[in-house]
Amino acid sequence: MTAATEPVLNEIIHAPNRLRICAFLGTVDRAEFSAIREMLGVADSVTSKQLKVLEDAGYVKLSKPTGKGRVKTWAALTPAGRGAYKVHVAALKALIAG
């Protein structure tokens, strides 16, 4: 691979909490907000902020299906998000490989 075609680190995904969210969502179809918050071990506000950054970038889709009981927020990686995460991981692997 030449320098021009090497994967590039994604600054949006690279932040530790957002990288962990993408890694987590990369293994499931979707996840409930509280599961993401617990996985991160942070407050609701921190989780919300990180999901909002990913949503604004088009990497995560948030939904609040209505039904009986409390409304829950669900998050899922978009196709663009899955692609960006895959490229970011490739860039990390390239860095490690030297």
Question: In terms of topology, how is this protein built?
Answer:
Blueprint: H1 11-14, H2 16-25, E1 31-32, H3 33-40, H4 44-56, E2 60-63, E3 74-77, H5 79-97
Antiparallel strand pairs: 1-3, 2-3
H/I helix tally: 5
State the separation between the terminal residues, measured CA to CA: 12 Å
Number of strands: 3
Lateral strand order in the biggest sheet: 1-3-2
What is the averaged pLDDT score? 92
Query: Uncertain regions: pLDDT < 50 for 5+ in a row?
Result: none
- What is the SS-derived class? mainly alpha
What is the CATH architecture assignment?
A: Orthogonal Bundle
Q: What is the name of the CATH class?
A: Mainly Alpha
CATH topology: Arc Repressor Mutant, subunit A
- Roughly what fraction of the amino acids lie in strands? 5-15%
Major beta-sheet overview: 3 strands, antiparallel
- CATH superfamily membership, which one? Winged helix-like DNA-binding domain superfamily/Winged helix DNA-binding domain
- Give the tally of structural domains: 1
The radius of gyration computed from the alpha-carbon positions, rounded to a whole number of angstroms, is: 15 Å
CA-based shape: elongated
Please provide the ordered H/E string of secondary-structure elements: HHEHHEEH
Measured as a percent range, the helix fraction is: 55-70%
Organism: Arthrobacter livingstonensis
Protein name: MarR family transcriptional regulator
Characterise the protein shown here.
This is MarR family transcriptional regulator. It comes from Arthrobacter livingstonensis. InterPro entries: WH-like_DNA-bd_sf, WH_DNA-bd_dom, WH_DNA-bd_sf. 55% of the residues lie in helices and 10% in strands. The model has no long low-confidence stretch (mean pLDDT 92). By secondary structure, it is mainly α. Strands 1-3-2 form a three-stranded antiparallel β-sheet. Helix 3 packs across helix 4. It has a single domain, classed as Arc Repressor Mutant, subunit A (Orthogonal Bundle).
